[in-house]
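Appendix C: a fully annotated inverse folding record. The material below is reproduced so that readers can follow the format used throughout the book. The structure is listed first as tokens, followed by the designed sequence.
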């Protein structure tokens, strides 16, 4: 019997005809506030709820504006989930959390077709992946088979279900977490899955002053309930469209090429940065320039985001983190004037 999906409720950023059929998204409208004002509002919301240092916040905001995904590494209890919820509430988006476990199946993430006796046909029941911001908690606790269901979603913003393609929400952002300390019951995250994350950041313990403020302030849930959205989903889509117009001049592009080429030729590196890694680096740098209300990328944008974008795409022979090596190359490679 042919399987047919029922009509579904639209996510923010999509619209329906009078008959209920999903049609093309509305064109992005100009944002209601400047890029810098949006950045300042997002930073203020995050600072009001969770103690996250600036060097972690900046790559996350750049990924949000660039349309990329984020991998946050850190031990339990330091605010990774609260960070994702604050970000979702700040963009007035729909939030879903997926707790990855070793028995999780792809259908638990994407959804599945369920037989409905009342109508005599199969109905597609959406999984938690259909949201604007999805928290993929502890992605290294599930098998590569289950993790593979995220690849098409993160790359193209859609999934293949029951022989048909289904669009995800707009905007769509995956914020995944990974515990780098505990290895019992975990799986290695495949390189192809790591490459889908625009940035990878490490979240550690807050500094003494920030941690003391957490102890003496209101409950985090109360602080989260008090913040207000900074951007609508349409505003964010407009910022993403504006990000495409930021210019990359030839000397800056040549600087990027020198860095990625150096990662491939370094004697300690087994696998260097790919052309896709370089393009991802430039995309994040464009977002940083836009949030600073500049129409062009500076080498400083690239240097600020280099470790967060390149380190998880460069693999050393000894298995150690490539972040120190990327920082070394950024410091020793000549900067274009």
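Designed amino acids, in order:
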């Amino acid at each position: 019997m042919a399987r047919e999906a029922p009509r579904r409720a639209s996510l923010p950023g999509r619209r329906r005809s009078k008959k209920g059929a999903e049609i093309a998204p509305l064109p992005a409208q100009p944002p209601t506030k400047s890029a810098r004002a949006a950045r300042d509002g997002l930073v203020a919301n995050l600072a009001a709820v969770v103690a996250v240092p600036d060097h972690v916040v900046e790559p996350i905001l750049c990924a949000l504006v660039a349309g990329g995904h984020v991998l946050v590494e850190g031990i339990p209890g330091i605010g990774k989930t609260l960070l994702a919820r604050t970000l979702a509430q700040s963009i007035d988006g729909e939030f879903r959390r997926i707790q990855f476990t070793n028995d999780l199946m792809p259908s638990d993430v994407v959804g599945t077709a369920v037989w409905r006796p009342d109508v005599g046909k199969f109905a597609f029941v959406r999984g938690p992946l259909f949201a604007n911001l999805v928290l993929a908690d502890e992605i290294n606790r599930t098998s590569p088979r289950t993790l593979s269901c995220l690849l098409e979603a993160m790359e193209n913003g859609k999934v293949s279900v029951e022989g048909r393609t289904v669009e995800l929400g707009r905007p769509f952002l995956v914020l995944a977490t990974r515990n780098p300390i505990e290895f019992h019951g975990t799986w290695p995250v495949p390189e192809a899955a790591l490459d889908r994350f625009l940035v990878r950041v490490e979240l550690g313990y807050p500094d003494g002053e920030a941690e003391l403020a957490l102890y003496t302030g209101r409950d985090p849930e109360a602080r989260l309930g008090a913040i207000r959205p900074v951007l609508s989903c349409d505003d964010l889509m407009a910022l993403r469209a504006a990000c495409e117009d930021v210019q990359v001049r030839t000397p800056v592009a040549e600087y990027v090429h020198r860095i990625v080429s150096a990662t491939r030729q370094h004697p300690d590196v087994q696998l260097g940065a790919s052309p896709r890694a370089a393009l991802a680096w430039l995309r994040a740098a464009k977002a940083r320039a836009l949030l600073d209300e500049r129409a062009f990328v500076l080498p400083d944008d690239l240097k600020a985001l280099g470790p967060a974008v390149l380190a998880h795409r460069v693999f050393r022979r000894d298995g150690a983190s490539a972040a120190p090596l990327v920082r070394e190359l950024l410091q020793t490679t000549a900067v274009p004037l």
